[in-house]
Fold these 4 entries.
Entry 1:
Amino acid sequence: MTPQNGTTVQYAIDPRASQFTVQAFASGLISAVAHSPKIAIRDWSGNVSFVPESLKNASLKVVVKASSLEVLDELRDGDRREIHRVMNNEVLETGRFPNVEFESSSIEVDRLKETLHRVNVAGQLGLHGVTNSQAFKLQDECYVVARKKN
């Protein structure tokens, strides 16, 4: 089915075909002794909607299972276990706050190539029981795969 011109379409993001990583940055006095780990998000879901021809009216909603965060940096096993323990039990308190949620309020898309985009996103991030404004940039390479129903 092809959408009508100007019609907003919605897609579910396939986490198995996607890579979702973030980097945490240490600041202030602790930055001298702490590192800024790269973290993979392993369990998440998301939806994106937009007008395909123009990429207008874009929106994004993502829900992350907080306990699924995994540090990607090369670490000793004991250090990795300790970072995960602190991250889950003391920082994120995943037992009390199992999800991290983001919902966009504005999205600006620059098409670099047919399937490659640079995206500026602003919205509301719900983390550890608190919701605040958050903006970030991302790059995506998007292929829409249609499967014929039998």
Note: Residues 77-91 form the longest helix (15 residues).
Entry 2:
Amino acid sequence: MHAKENLIAWGGDRAEKLRACGTLLQDPSARGSTRTLEGKVDSIGSVDAVAGDGPAPPSMSSFRHAGESSRAASVLVLAPRRAPAPRASLRVLLLACRPKQWVKNLLVVAAPCAAGMIDRPAVAAQAAGAFVVLCLVSAATYLVNDVRDSEQDRLHPKKRMRPIAAGALAPRSALVLAVALAASGIGLATAIRPALGLVACCYLALTASYSLLLRRIPVLDILAIAAGFVLRAVAGGVATDIYLSRWFVIVTACGAVFLVAAKRYAELLEHRGERVARPTLRRYSTTGLRLTLLGAASGAGAAYIGWALTRPASVAWFALSVAPFLLWLGRYAALIRAGAGQAPEELILGDRALLVLSAAWGLLFIGGVYVGS
């Protein structure tokens, strides 16, 4: 079989494409130059590979064999070309860092706002720096978690759209980015205040222990996530050098436990009667989580009332702020009972009643801090 016949046997449509590229295929023995044919087929093969239609052309050894022996039939073994992995775009990298979750880091302004010092430029700059630090280190932990959970996330109706689970971001690239973000966060925190660098390291250690161990232990998994919220609030106080009262810490801790337990409760309701994907969730009960919600809400409400009624000034403003605070907790609990709450940030920003109560509480609180004084 001649080289031309060999090529047509490999695929007549491919031969037409090669002719369209301006190459005349002839028997190498008639031309007396196998090297010339090799160069032409190589150049055309690269054009056809760019077109992306089918596998790569036959190897040159097959054409040499056809030219040397017209009586032997050539068997062509085609090796598919492996397309290079696409580089992740800036948008994909940003989505992998979960920017919607960064709203939790606004807790850094809680301490300076409660102290009435957020309007000072230096304090505001320090609080903004603490916010950036927490965005960097929390994004690093999200990337590591998504790499660990990529196989499980692919089976989830929503989480499968995350860049790592969807294959838009390679796990190796995600881990490299996570290390860079963590190092940048610790460096910036230390530059703002050495104690803030220590808080950032504690946050990374907490989230790492959660990913490796605590997430598999009931109750401790809730407490670990709640501790992350407390560290956010502590970071704001440390960055601005503001003393945190025991009332402030209790309200923050109980409120964090309330939100995390509500998330677990919503997840349990969603998977009721089904096989639960999260192993720890199987060991929870709706009754136990309801009691946790009740205890956390009661603790947060009692601590806030104790703080509001013991202010040295502006007691009326802070006392009035108790009502929207308690109503907010009640409204959130009602939404949880209805099956919402797996994504707390989406629930808070998407419910009009919660937004109105949040605005009312904020106005009364600011009035107590600035107007009443």
Note: Residues 172 and 185 are 20 Å apart (CA to CA).
Entry 3:
Amino acid sequence: MPSGWSKADIEFLIKSRSVLVVDDNQFMRKIVRNLLMNIGVREVYEAADGIAGLDAIRMLGPDIVVLDWELPLLARAQGGATRRQRVSA
């Protein structure tokens, strides 16, 4: 636990985050969703491909994105560049 943080602080931080899981494998999305929910994340969204993931980022503005490295319809470099453009815009 970080110095000066209570267990309640960390639990609040986890519960207040929204996470988008982008993966073409439905089973992997389910595993990641379940893991996140088991540690207390309340808002978990899913997208099945790169295009849907970019749309979800624009619409939902998640705090964290868990992204499949070999994602169809979006090259690795393209996904990172698109995300950086959104953040700096």
Note: The chain is about 50% helix and 15% strand.
Entry 4:
Amino acid sequence: MHRHGYSWGSNCVTLYTDNLILRTVETSDIEEVARMWEFEKGRISTEEAQKAIDYMQSNHEKNKPGNIYHLCFAVFEKGNGHIIGWCGLDGKIAGKLHIFYLIEKDYRNKGYATQCAEKLLSYAFDEAHVSFVNGGCDKDNIASYKVMTKIGMRENGYEANGDPLFFINDEIYRENGTRR
């Protein structure tokens, strides 16, 4: 089923960009989750992958309009059945909703993180009706810094270690006319 928005309580949510499919995972994705859950460290067991799927699905059930607890999407390149990364919105810390994205090295520098981030903001403000989204990145991660600024997030201070923090609210999002 092709869903462009989020159906609250739904087990599978799918969002589309020009080149990507962002989709919540299901048990049928277990081999891909095992391969990619900690892709920078290596494959995990199918038992660990099932725990990761159960964890993500449990978190998704806690999402409500205006309040995202945690929403994690597997990133697929259109026409490719393999997970190439992860992205989502994490609101587990009260009063904060963080955007995140992580793309496998072979698929970087293609604009995919920007497409993910733009679609996540569109979802956050247009579908989930949240009031703000926070972001941050390692001070040495220039690519991620550029993604945050490109999608219209504003620098909003620094962590103690110098890592930049970002912020965007619904008003700024609408003023920016961020691509959707």
Note: Residues 1-9 have pLDDT under 50 and may be disordered.
